[in-house]
Design brief:
Layout lengths: L1 H28 L4 E5 L2 E2 L5 H11 L6 E2 L3 E2 L2 E2 H12 L5 E5 L5 E2 H11 L9 E2 L17 H6 L5
Parallel strand pairs: 1-6, 2-5, 3-8
Antiparallel strand pairs: 4-7
Length: 154
């Protein structure tokens, strides 16, 4: 179990390093480019988070939603609008395209369940800090600067 957790943590560290390397490369090789960072993407029922909430409520999947794992989910249509605006603009640099509200994975699951007419009380809670492979628990992208420059955000 410990070896599996170590492998998973190493893989996650590699993904993070690859993202940082790619962002740096784009900014060096294409200084007029826009680099977009986003958070959990929600909308139209097909996201990982929406499918997970549905499966947990239906009992077709075991698990919990963490109360201490915080993200700023963004609606897919808002994200698409912001990306479209950036693509046709001459704005360059780093853009944080995330939702305005910080929510736990459990809070997000409850909102999804309620929106879709599901029994939200079936969503069990847990703590990411207690998981065998705890990841980054508080990931809040501050989109305030981007919101002043791009209308399709927030």
């Amino acid at each position: 179990m410990l070896e599996q957790a170590t492998r998973a943590q190493n893989a996650l560290a590699e993904v993070r390093a690859a993202k940082a390397t790619a962002e740096t490369a784009v900014r060096l090789l294409a200084p007029t480019a826009s680099v977009a960072r986003t958070s959990s993407i929600i909308g139209q029922g097909g996201s990982v988070h929406e499918r997970r909430a549905h499966a947990l409520v239906a009992g077709t999947r075991d698990g919990v939603l963490f109360t201490d794992d915080i993200r700023c989910p963004v609606n897919v249509e808002d994200l698409a609008s912001a990306l479209r605006e950036l693509a046709v603009s001459d704005q360059a640099g780093m853009f944080h395209l995330a939702g305005a509200d910080a929510l736990s994975r459990h809070e997000l699951g409850v909102l999804i369940a309620r929106r879709d007419g599901l029994e939200a009380t079936r969503l069990l809670t847990g703590r990411g800090a207690d998981a065998p492979m705890p990841g980054a628990l508080e990931v809040r992208l501050d989109s305030s600067v981007t919101q002043k420059r791009v209308r399709g955000t927030g």
